[in-house]
Amino acid sequence: MDTSRRKFMEQVALAAGVVALPSSVLGATPASKFNLLKEHSADFWLELSKEAYHKNAGVISAMANQKPVLAVIKNNAYGLGDVEVAKILDSNTNIEGFALVKADRALALRKAGVKKNILLMGDFDESLGRDLVKNDIILSVFSAHALQKIKSISNNSRKQIKTALYIDTGLGRMGIPFNQASKFATKVSSSLNLTIKYTFSTLTTPKDFAKEQIKTFNALIQELSKKGVNVGKTHLAPSFSILDLPNSHQDMVRPGILIHGSFPIADMEDESKKWPLVPTYRLKSRVIRLEKLSAGDTIGFSRFYKVTKDEWIATLPIGWGDGYDSGAENGAKVLLNGTLYPVINVNANHTNISLGASTKIKIGDIATLIGPEKPEITPEGFGKLIKRHNYLQINYKESIPKFVFDAF
Ligand SMILES: *Cc1c(COP(=O)(O)O)cnc(C)c1O
């Protein structure tokens, strides 16, 4: 980390009001004065709270009667950093391991030192097969073709290959159709070098159908254990089912969105009162331009926003091209020096905020676009204000710098 970057992050940490600065964030250099605008290059960044992730892991396990949690961190942990999140949760005793969809990301987790189980729920390129096995990645048997591929690695490897039987009980997207599953399970369990670590499926949201899926799955597990097939540990439930169907919990639960402190759908008011999940991240940027516009001026390509009286407009250097939702211009708010201001325009690289007729905001002031400070800017509050869902951060670009704090 170069000096200017380190200094920048000290400023970030100070702005966040963090007292104990973890060395993972700051390195060992003592704080010093510097000019924010001259000396760093990040336009926006993410801050993650270890404390919040640990808290949520405990809350989710409590939702599932203390069952372990297999954390789904696909899509770069919904945009928040798969390696960062896995490193935080790797020490958590409620966490069984991590599940994701891309083989290269599974390997990246191991490279970063993640020790817990890693389940690859997707396909892999044959060229990565040996590396995946060497790194103890659990490979999903989701089709005849996938099984063939796994077997071909096993022919060239003495190592036991850990597999997971991925069963399709009705989502219709991935997995072995349940009526063929028994045959497949027998094949896998009788293969010398293959071990079944998990048997899993995914539930849909409509309750009646999800209940049928659970019945189908349980009948299959029963049939297999009668046949003497060791199916390993079982799991079915994404976030919605964890809350909606207690009998979906199986040996462990498999949430994605709950880990980051959001409920899967907007109207889970009762659930959110009962289960105190906390937002785990902040998205921040800083003011790079301040101008006073007058009546008749407009903002944006489409001239969508029309100024009706003198109005200070701030520009933040983040836009929908960076993954900030373009719908933010339809009612979202941003926190600047303790006050919420409306977002009025989102372009590919810029977002405009209306500050009103007069302002004390200065260039360089740091804005929190998403964070735990106010209900309007939590991930859920943001989704609600702009009438969108709670998974919007999934579009954050991987290149957004991420800083991990012990606590917010
Ligand atoms: C994405 C996914 C999950 C997690 O979904 P959430 O709604 O975020 O909890 C669980 N299981 C599978 C197979 C998935 O693809």
Number of helices: 14
Multimeric status of the protein: single chain
- What ligands does this structure carry? pyridoxal-5'-phosphate
Poorly predicted runs of 5 or more residues: 1-8, 10-40
Percent helix, as a range, is 25-40%
What is the first-to-last residue Cα distance?
Answer: 23 Å
Give the averaged pLDDT, no decimals.
91
The coarse overall form would be elongated
Rg for CA atoms:
24 Å
β-sheet strand percentage: 15-25%
Walkthrough of the structure:
- This protein has helices at 3-15, 23-26, 36-39, 50-63, 74-79, 82-89, 103-111, 129-134, 144-155, 178-189, 207-226, 239-244, 269-274, 379-385, and strands at residues 44-49, 69-72, 95-100, 117-120, 137-141, 161-168, 176-177, 194-200, 233-235, 281-286, 289-293, 298-299, 305-306, 311-316, 333-336, 339-346, 351-356, 366-370, 402-405.
- The strands form 3 sheets. Strands 11-14-17-16-15-18-10-1-19 form a 9-stranded mixed beta sheet. Strands 2, 3, 4, 5, 6, 7, 8 and 9 form an 8-stranded parallel beta sheet that branches. Strands 12-13 form a two-stranded antiparallel sheet.
- The protein is elongated, with a radius of gyration of 24 Å.
- The protein is an alpha/beta fold and 408 residues long.
- Residues 1-8 and 10-40 have low confidence and may be disordered.
- Helices cover 31% and strands 23% of the residues.
- The protein has 14 helices and 19 strands.
- The site of pyridoxal-5'-phosphate has 12 residues, from helix 12.
- Pyridoxal-5'-phosphate is lined by residues 72, 74, 121, 202, 238-240, 254-257, 264.
